[in-house]
Design goal:
CATH topology of the largest domain: Dna Ligase, domain 1
Shape: globular
Number of helices: 2
Structural class: mainly beta
CATH superfamily of the largest domain: DNA polymerase, Y-family, little finger domain
Number of strands: 14
CATH architecture of the largest domain: 2-Layer Sandwich
Oligomer: single chain
Helix content: 10-25%
Radius of gyration: 19 Å
Order of helices and strands: EHEEEHEEEEEEEEEE
Largest sheet: 7 strands, antiparallel
CATH class of the largest domain: Alpha Beta
Length: about 230
């Protein structure tokens, strides 16, 4: 059994046959998830949970997030398969020019101390247009109202998971995130053309609900002028 509170990688390489634009199939998603269930999920105790996200790796070694973050236990295998398929069917068209090398399931087993809420959370994909009323507005920029980084874009964890780079959806902008050790806080830098536009600090209020947070500090950058705003 892997350690709790550490992100792990479970991969399922795809068969080598197929054309240059080979996409994964529903049966392959089911097979990878069933294999994950047999080797990892089924080994959890009855009251234990893990966080998991479905990703793919292309033949160009690009890793892309397909699903959003899910909080599951060992009793909802079929629900997890169904939501992974839903997410893939919505994004499949974006990868028709790629050859998929493997399915990746990133997961973290939650410690019993963190599992205060005894429920699984299955986040189905949003099939409608984005509602910008659900965004946090800082200056002229909109930011997702959640600390679930996988809702922000494609996530790459670096420096032993102490920091992360998030590639904003449908944009060339990136978020550079630094997690403050031994806290539930993170410092976010929003960058365009490698220039910091806005920096802010978030604090998670409930570890079981990534939508519960408070904004502690904002620093905004305009040309060479720097301004500060402290929220009490």
């Amino acid at each position: 059994m892997q350690n709790t509170n550490t992100w792990n990688v479970f991969s399922s390489p795809e068969p080598k046959e197929g054309g240059p634009n080979k996409l994964i199939t529903v049966s392959q998603i089911i097979g990878a998830t069933n294999k994950f269930y047999a080797e990892v999920l089924s080994t959890l105790s009855d009251g234990q949970y893990l966080l998991i996200i479905f990703k793919i790796r292309t033949n160009e070694n690009l890793i892309r997030s397909i699903s959003t973050l899910q909080r599951v236990n060992k009793f909802i295998q079929d629900d997890l398969i169904a939501v992974f398929i839903e997410h893939w069917e919505l994004k499949e068209e974006n990868y028709k020019h790629f050859k998929i090398e493997e399915i990746i399931l990133n997961y973290k087993i939650i410690s019993k101390e963190e599992s205060k809420e005894n429920t699984a959370i299955i986040n189905k994909p949003l099939k409608n247009r984005v509602n910008y009323n659900n965004f946090l507005k800082i200056g002229t920029y909109n930011f997702p109202v959640t600390m679930d980084l996988f809702e922000w874009g494609g996530v790459d964890f670096i420096l032993n998971d102490k920091e992360a780079i998030v590639f904003k959806k449908h944009s060339h902008s990136v978020y550079h995130i630094r997690f403050i050790e031994n806290t539930h806080k993170m410092v976010v830098e929003y960058r365009k053309s490698n220039r910091v536009i806005v920096s802010f600090t978030d604090e998670l209020l409930d570890v079981n609900n990534l939508g519960t947070f408070r904004l502690l500090k904002i620093k905004y950058f305009i040309l060479r002028m720097v301004g500060y705003f402290i929220k009490k």
